[in-house]
Amino acid sequence: MSRQEATLATPSPVTAVMIAKNASLVAGVSQDHKLRIWALPDAHLLRTVDLNGREANVTAVSDDGRWLLMGDFAGGVTVWDSSSGEVRLEQRFQHYLTAAAFSHDGRLVGIAPGSEAVKVLDVASNRMLYELERTLGGSDAIAFSRDGALVATADGDAVRVYDARNGKLISQNSDFSLVQLTVEFTSDGKQIVAAGGDKVVVFIDAATGKTVRRMKKTAEAVLYLEVSPDGSQLAAITFKADNTSLPAPVIVWDIPSLQKRAEWVSPAGVLSGGWIRTEDGHFLAATVTPDALHLWRVR
Hints:
Elements: E1 3-9, E2 14-19, E3 25-30, E4 34-39, E5 45-50, E6 56-61, E7 67-72, E8 76-81, E9 87-92, E10 97-102, E11 108-113, E12 119-122, E13 127-131, E14 139-144, E15 150-155, E16 159-163, E17 169-173, E18 180-185, E19 191-196, E20 202-205, E21 211-214, E22 221-227, E23 233-239, E24 249-254, E25 260-265, E26 272-276, E27 282-289, E28 292-297
Antiparallel strand pairs: 1-28, 2-3, 3-4, 4-5, 6-7, 7-8, 8-9, 10-11, 11-12, 12-13, 14-15, 15-16, 16-17, 18-19, 19-20, 20-21, 22-23, 23-24, 24-25, 26-27, 27-28
């Protein structure tokens, strides 16, 4: 079951979407090189930021919607304050980003510049705190545990877990046939959930790196995973590897039974999605048409 929550008119096709977990806003980068920010739930346009010709490669948003990050194909990284549109952090790297994520309190941001080591920065001071170890092929995903104690990466050769205070390696898991594209912590931070091109969702013990559970294969590759705010459900955005613009399922499972709770095939490829921390917490998925951004309630 699904229903359309909002349709946001856009003067230019949207290429990247960010949805705040506290349901305060949604932001989109369009082909006209503009970053537009809308308030939720009334979906009115708050402000437009001129990107000066930059094209988005990676985007991220803090849970409270305050910080918006964009990495471009020239290696530039910017964090804006969504309440004012002002630049909070700006960095440039030799390689463009392959992944980025904020800690759940919005204090830290982890970024992966190509094949370089993942860097963890303090947003308020605009400085790098530490680097994680350099890995084969760089990192395709970054996630912080909800208590901020751990940070995980999906790398070219393994899923790794680090101490988020100092970047010290805690565990790693290499039980995969293909590169993992997404990682997420369970709500208690004790396990990592990972998935990717091999179409299998895997639960990993964060302390030891050992595989705890493997789910049945999904029909398509998994691009994104997220655990619900109460820790009871897991959602996955899948995609067709040979044509990402085609429809592919969004799937919701119960935890710990791993029974499928919902499955929805979008009218077009899903650009983004996430659990919204409202009283009736639900999963929003974002799709686009040439003249609008559409938000769907999947569960």
